[in-house]
């Protein structure tokens, strides 16, 4: 309806974009989907008699939206805190994923229970694939351990075995920080996620949800869902439910290691840090180096300068944040916002450096220049060096 403008004339009314969107959505749906009939559970009979609802209205009411249903401004990925949200009301047992997971874990061996949990939650979440991968003890390699797939969706549980974490380094940096990662659009992942994106596209993934599995404060595994038929954005409530399942899985999988050959499984993915290779992504080539050969790393804007024992430095085409999430904390320490060092290569700590004699600096094996230590990292450096 037209409205009066300030000058007394008739001003056009602002269009109701949400209404127009809904009308367009319903008109399209009405052409391709059959209409509902009276007798549908949960809908008053008078409404069913007087109105013919397209089937997908029920989907919209339940917020199971696909990318065609929401703005293209949805980000390519989101980070979700896995902290327990406040519970406003008790769920029905059939809707409480943690309850269902607990029943499985109590009544079955852990391996069979985890497989059943992935299938059950995958179906409830409308996923095409549900999976779990586990880390080696030093967090430098991972392997797929469990998988459920819907119908004729391709299976990849046997593909990634003893795989370097550098391949999923962009994802790993968030998982190790305790964040769930919801990738709404695999095709739009940022450049540092290029290796991960290539693997996801190979598996025909369009959207992926990843939830970390921690036990006694240590990242041990990751569980999640894939959407292969169409892009998908899972509701936050479902992500928190999957997080609660991850907590229960961690207790069953890592809290009682004799449950289903865990000792054998753990031995299969355990590697010695000193012998482990990490792969540098350098211009035009990839190079594997031992962790012990890395002396230190410095930020070079979007890239990282890596100092090695056998040469001055090389440029890795990934940011320093990639490496801070990957390198094992017992051996490496951040000493500055832009620098990480290998503690085993520290030859000297100068606590009276610089013109004022109040700055701190470390000297590293084989390096002539000193590396500055900023104030927030000094106490931990002293502790780690035992001084």
**What is the general shape?**
elongated
- Give start-end ranges of low-pLDDT stretches: 1-71, 258-274
Separation, N- and C-terminal Cα atoms = 77 Å
Helix content: 25-40%
Order of helices and strands: EEHHHEHHEEEHEHEEHHEEEEEHEEEEEH
Strand content range = 25-35%
Short description:
The chain is of the alpha+beta class. Helices cover 29% and strands 28% of the residues.
Would you mind describing this structure in some detail?
A seven-stranded antiparallel sheet has the order 3-7-8-9-4-5-6, with helices on both faces. The chain has a five-stranded antiparallel sheet with strand order 14-13-12-16-15, with helices on one face. It contains eleven helices and 19 strands. The chain has helices at residues 17-32, 45-50, 56-61, 97-107, 110-124, 169-175, 194-202, 236-254, 262-269, 320-326, 378-385; strands at residues 3-4, 10-11, 77-81, 129-135, 141-149, 163-164, 179-183, 207-215, 218-227, 277-282, 285-290, 294-300, 303-308, 311-316, 332-336, 339-342, 346-353, 359-364, 370-373. Strand 10 (277-282) and strand 11 form a beta hairpin. 30% of the residues are buried. Helix 4 runs parallel beside helix 8 (236-254), helix 5 runs antiparallel to helix 8 (236-254) and helix 6 (169-175) packs across helix 10 (320-326). The longest helix has 19 residues, at 236-254. The protein is an alpha+beta fold. The model is unreliable at 1-71 and 258-274 (pLDDT under 50).
């Amino acid at each position: 309806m037209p409205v009066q403008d300030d000058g007394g004339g008739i001003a056009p009314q602002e269009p109701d974009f949400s209404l127009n969107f809904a009308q367009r959505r319903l008109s399209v749906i009405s052409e391709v989907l059959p209409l509902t009939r009276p007798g549908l559970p949960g809908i008053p009979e008078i409404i069913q008699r007087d109105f013919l609802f397209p089937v997908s209205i029920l989907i919209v009411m339940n917020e199971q939206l696909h990318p065609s249903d929401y703005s293209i401004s949805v980000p390519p990925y989101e980070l979700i805190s896995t902290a327990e949200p406040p519970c406003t009301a008790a769920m029905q047992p059939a809707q409480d994923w943690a309850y269902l997971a607990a029943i499985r874990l109590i009544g079955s061996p852990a391996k069979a229970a985890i497989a059943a949990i992935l299938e059950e939650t995958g179906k409830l979440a409308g996923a095409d694939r549900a999976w779990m991968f586990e880390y080696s003890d030093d967090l430098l390699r991972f392997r797929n351990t469990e998988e459920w797939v819907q119908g004729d969706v391709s299976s990849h549980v046997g593909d990634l075995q003893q795989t370097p974490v550098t391949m999923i380094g962009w994802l790993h940096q968030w998982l190790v920080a305790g964040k769930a990662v919801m990738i709404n659009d695999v095709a739009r992942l940022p450049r540092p996620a290029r290796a991960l994106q290539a693997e996801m596209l190979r598996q025909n993934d369009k959207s992926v949800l990843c939830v970390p599995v921690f036990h006694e404060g240590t990242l041990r595994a990751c569980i999640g869902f894939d959407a292969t038929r169409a892009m998908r954005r899972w509701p936050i409530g479902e992500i928190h439910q999957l997080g609660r399942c991850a907590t229960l899985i961690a207790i069953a999988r890592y809290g009682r290691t004799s449950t289903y050959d865990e000792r054998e499984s753990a031995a299969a993915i355990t590697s010695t840090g000193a012998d482990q290779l990490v792969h540098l992504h350098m211009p035009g080539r990839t190079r594997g180096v031992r962790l012990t050969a890395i002396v230190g790393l410095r930020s070079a804007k979007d890239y990282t300068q890596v100092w090695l024992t056998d040469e001055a430095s090389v440029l890795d085409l990934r940011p320093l944040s990639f490496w801070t999430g990957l390198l094992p904390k017992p051996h490496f320490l951040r000493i500055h916002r832009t620098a990480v060092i290998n503690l085993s290569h520290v030859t000297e700590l100068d606590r009276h450096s610089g013109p004022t004699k109040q700055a701190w600096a470390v000297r590293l094996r084989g390096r002539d220049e000193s590396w500055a230590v900023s104030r927030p990292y000094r106490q931990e450096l002293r502790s780690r060096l035992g001084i």
